[in-house]
Amino acid sequence: MRLKSILGVLLPLAVLGAVVYAVSCHTWGVLYGLGVHPYPESSSTPWTYQMWSGVIPALTVLTLFGALSSVYHLHNCHYETCWRLGRHRVNGSPWCDKHFKDVKPELTPEDVLEMILGVLTEIRDWHETQ
Ligand SMILES: [Zn+2]
User: Where are the chain's structural domains?
Assistant: First the structure.
C-alpha cells in the first residue's frame, strides 16, 4: 500500500521531469520527441522522416495490441483468472468447457411468468379435485 502511494507520486513527477528536461534542454524540445528532426538541407531526407518511421508506427502497433487484447477478452472464458477460450454462450458471455457447468443461466421475465402460471395451474387443479 505504501509502495503504491510512493509510486503514485514519484511516477508522475518523473514523467513531468522528463518532459521539462526534453523541452528545456533540447533545442527542438517536444518536436524532437515527436519525430521532427532538422536534417541538413543537402540531405534528401524529409523533416518528418522520424515521425513516419518512429512515433506513428509505434502508435499503430500499440493500437493493434489493444485490438488483439479486446478480441481475446471478447472470446475468452468469463470465469475469473481463466485463460481458455469460451466455447459455450450463457447469457451472452463465453464460458469454457470446464466452467460451463458451473454457470447458471439467468431467467428471463417470460421464464418467471411461465413458472408462476405453472404453479397457479397446479393450485387450481388441486382445488378442483378437492
Ligand atoms: Zn473457464
Answer: 1-34
